[in-house]
Amino acid sequence: MTNRSTDAGGIRALVVHPALRGARSSSRSLEARLAEAQGLAEAIALTVVHGDLRRIARPVPATLFGRGVVKEIADIVELEDVALVVVDGALSPIQQRNLERAWACKVIDRTALILEIFGRRARTREGTLQVELAHLTYQRSRLVRSWTHLERQRGGFGFLGGPGESQLEIDRRLIDERLTKLKRELETVRRRRGLQRRARRRVPFPVVALVGYTNAGKSTLFNRLTKAKVAAEDKLFATLDPTMRAVDLPSGQRVILSDTVGFISDLPTHLVAAFRATLEEVTDAQVLLHVRDVSHPDHDAQKADVLTVLETLGLGGRLEGNTIEALNKIDLLNDEDREALATQAARSNQPAVPVSAKTGQGLERLLDMLDQRLAQNRVAVGYRLDIGDGAALSWLYEYGEVIERHDEDAVIALKVRLDPKDAARFEKRFAADRVE
User: Where do the domains of the chain lie, and which CATH numbers do they carry?
Assistant: First the structure.
């Protein structure tokens, strides 16, 4: 019989998607949902030895599944020597405990799996604090797991192993104390981030935020546009912590590009807080760049899930007239599908550009569209500067788009396209007056 390793890389896992009759409808197929759940498990190097789709007419309070299904899965667990069962849905503490007894192995639900991924992906202090806060909020309502993750230095949160985990009970007082401390630390981090954002506003580069479903290619696109080296893997949630870099558009306009965590369907409500930390930059963004994997069979459903999460985060108002779609991974389409996509994008009311972040195809058009979108917020302003006022002249070239310039004996006359806020900032700083 295969050794059931407690090292996540050696854990043999079975993934079960419970299809509940009467659950909210979705354009995503049940098979696609199961495949996504298996991808989530593989994102933390679990060895998925079996995937199972089970239709449920009526959930059983004690075990979710009926007695017959519980027995069938128990047989598979024994036959495949499974150490971990991932139920791609929500389990109550009682259901989880009873299934662990029935299957004689560890059982986690979708929330625990996503938290485990977040725990391993977070790198910044803020990211780890947010994820631990979400994790403890989840654990506090259950009181059936261990506290050992606080004593370990590796990533993750202990759902997949740890010494004595099944024997220890979480102490509510310890959780409450830790939650209080986490909230204080997060408030300090948020204040620091707020100061950083205010500092950026004094150096007014527009922010373009990348959003999209997990594994849509955001980090690959980010790397291609910025020549950065953000981790870009073919994994769900390869990026968790926000990253920002400057990019120069064709007009010379400099923007700040912000990479963010990928979204996913059916994100548990109390996990939204973990997203909020990585998405604070979105609230200040002038443009949202929605990266979509058009090679994925369920890309329309993925788009709907992204919009739903943004609405949940209170960012729905940012979408109106501020979004450009990067229709990514066209290198994976055949010629006929690429042509159909290009036609669809040209006719769409939503600004959209077919691109390949991997090959660079379509990125020039994407940058042009970003330029045009940002230019819509700008106004053409005329100024007359003293010919020796190099600081003011340099400022206009750096933060604006000079569209006309006439050098006279002692004066330079310019027409510059500027954001209204930048124009006001320039006039205050250099005591300049507008001219017709």
Answer: 8-110 (3.40.50.11060), 116-187 (no CATH), 205-375 (3.40.50.300), 379-435 (3.30.2130.10)
